[in-house]
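INFO batch 0412 | record 1 of 1 | parsing
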Amino acid sequence: MARSNPAYVHDGDPQDLGFGHNYHEKLPSTISAESFSKQPIQNGTTKDTAPAMSVSKPNKALRDKWGKDIEFLLSCIALSVGLGNVWRFPFTALENGGGAFVIPYLIVLLLVGRPIYYLEMLIGQFSSRGAIEVYDAAPAMRGIGYGQIYSTFIVMTYYASIMGITVRYLIASFGDPLPWGECRDSWNATCIDSSLAVNSAENTTEKKISSAELFFEVEVLNETPSLDDGIGTPNWKLVVCLLVPWTCICLILIKGIKSSGKASYFLAIFPYIVMLVLLIRACTLEGANKGMLYFIKPQWDRILEAKVWYAAVTQVFFSLTVCFGNVLMYSSYNRFSNNVYRDVTIVSILDTCTSLLAELIVFGVVGHLAHALNAPDIDKVVRGGPGLAFITYPDAIAKFKFWPQFFAIAFFLMLFVLGIGSNVGMATTIMTVVRDRFPHLRAWRVALVIAVIGYSVGIIYTTPGGQYLLDFLDFYGASFVALVLAVFEMLTFAWIYGVGRICRDIEFMLGIKTGLYWRLCWGFITPTMLTAILVYHIATYKPFTFNGYVFTSGMYAFGWCVFAVGVLQLPCWAVYAVLKRKEPSWKNRILSCFRPLHHWGPEDPELNAKYHESVYKYDQTVPVGRSLLRKMVDNVFQ
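INFO prediction complete | emitting tokens
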């Protein structure tokens, strides 16, 4: 088997920087360079006879593992299948060509999403390291991990705030009639009851606003028209509701991965039960077929627009949650021989199918809403982002004649569970980083501290200006940062650590060969597409606005500072890694920072010893003096 006797072919000269070198910073204590006896062979290189190796005890206890392999799979499903599938994908598709958007989305999924997802799963499982320690493979690039944790924290806090709003709606859903179904005198004179199946412009030329929209903006958010007077005072109802998701997250993580693995059965399966119920209901609504056909009808002229492809990439990132450290973290708790190839296939297919299923539900409900309002264009009744979940859906549900409370409760409970599943993954990523650094800390204490800090930060999103800050920080602190770091992540693993070495690690771990599709994607296609999208995003950059509101120059300066904190982690930690080295020359210091640390490899000491034995043995079989082009070709194809 490859695991017990892997056959490696070195794809980089020992003194090379990158291109899949197998040369570590120094030999581990169990091996000495002199212990290899070299024998000449015909091709002018040398052949080693590997020495007998002793196995040293690890410095710390072995990492916790999932109770069952299915818990890992379900946790990945709960992490990836979330709010992005329910509200972001349908509206993004509608904005970018309808059914035609599915084509670039699937292409990006195959050439960017799946390769990164598989790569992160492999590296995490192989090394049993979290989002920061995994860069023991190239210490100079450790800042990527810190930057991704920074972005994960930002996303985690505002995700929880959305869950707080969901709790507010879930409680309100028990009311009869639904509180957003009827207007209130204190709201607006131009309000129209959402429970009425009439056109808002039927009896007057004055534009009216649905009670569902006013309930969201006035009653729930108390949203301010601008930030000119500040963000305002937190809404005490949302502050209380925010306690619910953070309490759930803390309880789920109280025993670390062991307790979250058990919770994954419910977090991953329950939303599909509700989706099935909602799909059946959506298909039976009047006008639902019109809405579904509206989505399916493609706008072929949009398919070649660069904006559409950028939207596809960001949607894949948002949906699969790659390049945030979450997938790396979950897979680091796997058994060394777990079949991650199977898991990647299941999660990626299920994620795509869920997005398409959500689209059918969304546009079925929206089609019914357009039919009830006699709206000529369906896009006139669709709102994106939170508006889709908290305005369009409630507006349509308020018009249900049959059990509107039941469907409201089911929908918002599904949203809550989807959000909790994603948030548990993000909180676990941060917990793993902390416990990797301080292994003596108990899981419940770390979970409690994360919950308290996350809750405290999340209070800013409960203010009247909270939604402004949410979208603003998502743009500058999460999406933009994640895209930049994704490019460097692929550079690190594909060209510094090396595609060839990854493929040999796979053979060592799983005993399988890596196909040409994965090699080409990791080596060329995925990095090229990510770089092109990043360049396009920078070239077409426009200052971020929220519903037409232009922020002050001070806020934009703050936004760039938020962005800089995430991205500058990379050069700062690279400089630190170089300064920490003790080699006499600066050249050797720099080169050593791009090579794996001596303890890099499998967590198990016996497997680690076998891994190092194979690496050092076959390092000597590489011919020296290769051209740069030959090194690049060997890195991907050898």
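INFO post-check: Residues 69-577 form a domain with the Amino acid/polyamine transporter I fold (CATH 1.20.1740).
INFO record closed
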